């Protein structure tokens, strides 16, 4: 009689979940992935996609692929009973939201990521656009499209045009800075060609409460990035405290109310409801994450590591060895779990620091790693990084085609 395969359930289809779904040996395990999204966002590509460098559909990867062998269930996990090894799920469809079903596991891997934190600032949820997934990138693209057309309506005053074409970005980390860089490239490039009457009227401001942008970078590179952005006429507003967002103004303690046409919220992480709910040990300061040992096994409330429960990605952190919430960490932890499961490897997880790269616009950027450099070389590293982040050959080919067409015929910003 054939022995039953061990059931491994992955919760989440982001960077970590997708990698695990591909990598865990489906001949050895019965692998199931549960997530409300049947695609996996390639987050480093979202800013470029939002600004028309390529079709936003290239910035996510479908789970229903011929070579993706994990079973997929479109649902939200609402709770887990770790004693009976039962996962309680809610179908990810509005019309079925009151239904529940259970999925059993032998081992579960928790990778539900985190969500944007608005820090309770009034008006953010109602008026800001977040940048977490392809739907958000499409929202930015669509709003840009509307703003450019609204500013082009006959009789629109110059003041009104300037307000409509002011993009306020909250968050001076890599996500906010890359968004600012892409927007200035767009405003100084194809938008000028397609909307010559709006030339010089668009502007981008980046707001951050910290004294310096790009916190993960060392001071010299952060200062370089800051001056590169200012050369591209990005208004950098550090040490700035946001009090309130209204439909068309951002109000700060330092400057009062300033008008905007689009506000992008690119800062702050908050735990997802599932992480808040689970009876596991969690970090006590900052972002709430599930605490694990160096084998990535989650700790129960009594302090014992649960060998059947892994936690990783943005939602998990190693006790005493905290790591940032990045795709790089999620990928390395997923590869480690794949090795543990496929090869019974018992060595502890070790993180290998890779280079940090941020684009600052006008074919310039900053790279921090074994070697630190800026300028055109940094832009090339960022562009090639974009290519390597893309996870399938199909999308790599489509991306090269899009870049070629942008070079030949300009970006397509007017079509969603
Ligand atoms: C715009 C942007 C750009 C970025 N650029 C970079 C970069 O250049 N380099 C880098 O290293 N990192 C980058 N990051 C960070 C990186 O994207 C995250 O660290 C990474 O996505 C974390 O992976 P994850 O698998 O833990 O979670 P996520 O990728 O966030 O995936 C979480 C998944 O869990 C699902 N989920 C949530 N709750 C539940 C539930 N209850 N039940 C089932 N499923 C659930 C979600 O729907 C989602 O599919 C960027 C992030 C953003 C937003």
TrEMBL record:
Q: One GO term of the cellular component aspect?
A: mitochondrion
Q: Which residues form the FAD/NAD(P)-binding domain?
A: 7-333
Q: What is the lineage of its organism?
A: Eukaryota, Fungi, Dikarya, Ascomycota, Pezizomycotina
> What's this protein's name?
FAD/NAD(P)-binding domain-containing protein
Tell me the SUPFAM superfamilies matching this sequence: FAD/NAD(P)-binding domain
Q: Which Pfam families match?
A: Pyr_redox_2
GO MF annotations for this entry?
NADH dehydrogenase activity
Keywords, ordered alphabetically:
FAD, Flavoprotein, NAD, Oxidoreductase
């Amino acid at each position: 009689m054939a022995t039953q395969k061990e059931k491994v359930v992955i919760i989440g289809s982001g960077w970590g979940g997708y990698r695990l779904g591909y990598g865990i040996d489906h001949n050895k395990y019965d692998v199931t992935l549960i997530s409300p999204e049947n695609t996996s966002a390639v987050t480093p590509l979202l800013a470029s996609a939002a600004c028309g460098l390529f079709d936003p559909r290239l910035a996510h990867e479908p789970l229903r692929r011929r070579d993706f062998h994990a079973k997929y269930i479109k649902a939200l996990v609402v709770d887990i009973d770790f004693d009976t090894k039962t996962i309680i799920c809610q179908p990810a469809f509005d019309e079925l939201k009151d239904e529940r079903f259970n999925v059993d596991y032998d081992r579960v891997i928790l990778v539900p990521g985190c969500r944007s934190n608005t820090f309770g600032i009034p008006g953010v949820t109602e008026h800001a656009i977040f940048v977490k997934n392809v739907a958000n990138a499409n929202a930015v693209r669509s709003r840009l499209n509307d703003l450019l057309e609204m500013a082009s309506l006959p009789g629109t005053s110059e003041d009104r045009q300037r307000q409509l074409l002011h993009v306020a970005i909250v968050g001076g980390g890599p996500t906010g800075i890359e968004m600012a860089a892409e927007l200035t490239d767009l405003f100084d490039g194809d938008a000028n060609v397609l909307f010559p009457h709006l030339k010089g009227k668009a502007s981008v401001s980046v707001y951050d409460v910290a004294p310096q942008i790009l916190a993960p970078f060392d001071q010299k590179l952060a200062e370089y990035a800051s001056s590169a952005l200012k050369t591209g006429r990005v208004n950098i507003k550090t040490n700035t405290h946001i009090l309130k967002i209204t439909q068309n103004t951002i109000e700060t303690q330092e400057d009062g109310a300033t008008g905007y046409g689009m506000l992008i919220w690119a800062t702050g992480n908050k735990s997802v409801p599932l992480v808040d709910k689970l009876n596991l040990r969690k970090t006590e300061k900052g972002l709430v994450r599930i605490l694990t040992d160096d084998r990535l096994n989650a700790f129960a409330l009594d302090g014992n590591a649960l060998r059947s429960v892994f936690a990783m990605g943005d939602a998990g952190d190693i006790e005493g060895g905290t790591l940032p919430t990045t795709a790089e960490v999620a990928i390395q932890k997923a590869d480690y779990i794949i090795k543990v499961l496929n090869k019974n490897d018992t060595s502890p997880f070790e993180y290998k620091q890779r280079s940090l790269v941020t684009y600052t616009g006008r074919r310039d950027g900053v790279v921090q790693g074994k070697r630190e450099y800026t300028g055109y070389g940094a832009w090339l590293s960022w562009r090639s990084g974009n290519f390597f982040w893309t996870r399938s050959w199909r999308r790599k080919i489509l991306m090269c085609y899009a870049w070629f067409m942008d070079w030949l015929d300009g970006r397509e910003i007017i079509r969603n």
